[in-house]
Amino acid sequence: MVWSRQSVDVPYCDRADVEHVTTAVVDMAKCQACGFGFEALGSWKAHHAAVCIARGLLAPEDIVAARNRLGLTQQELAARSGCGIASIKRWESSRKFQNVSSDRALRAVLELDAGADTGTGRGEKAAKPRGGARKRKAG
């Protein structure tokens, strides 16, 4: 196996059910014998973070980094933001996406402006979706 970091397309739908595509950088393995390639096991977290950024939401590692910078526990962040502790845990563990109003509440408590560099060292801001948008087929 040969490992490398590669950029992959990550499709997602916005609130209006319009499909977009963003990119994530993930670890990829490729078999030298047959040429079969696959993403590393934890790649879904990179996919999740890429979709958060494309949608203008705080990525899970951004929430954790800002919370830790302020010395807050998850419980304290939940109480100050008006969000439930279970929601904070789901957002920080990449299990769910927060909605726009919850993201605003988090940013207010975590002292982050919309689209601001979140301090994780990635220097990323909310990205615009690339490629053409298309309505997802009902099914």
Written description of the protein model:
By secondary structure, this protein is an alpha+beta fold. It folds into two domains: 1-55, no CATH class; 58-116, 434 Repressor (Amino-terminal Domain) (Orthogonal Bundle), CATH 1.10.260. The chain contains five helices and four strands. Strands 1, 2, 3 and 4 form a four-stranded antiparallel beta sheet that branches. A hairpin with a 6-residue loop joins strand 2 (18-30) and strand 3. Helix 3 crosses helix 4 (85-92). The radius of gyration is 17 Å and the shape is elongated. It starts with a strand and ends with a strand. 23% of the residues are buried. Mean pLDDT is 85; it is low at 117-136.
> What does the average pLDDT come to?
85
Low-pLDDT regions:
117-136
What is the N-to-C order of secondary-structure elements (H for helix, E for strand)?
A: EEEHHHHHE
User: What is the annotated CATH architecture of the largest domain?
Assistant: Orthogonal Bundle
Q: At the third CATH level, what is the topology name of the largest domain?
A: 434 Repressor (Amino-terminal Domain)
Helix content: 25-40%
Approximate strand percentage: 15-25%
Number of strands: 4
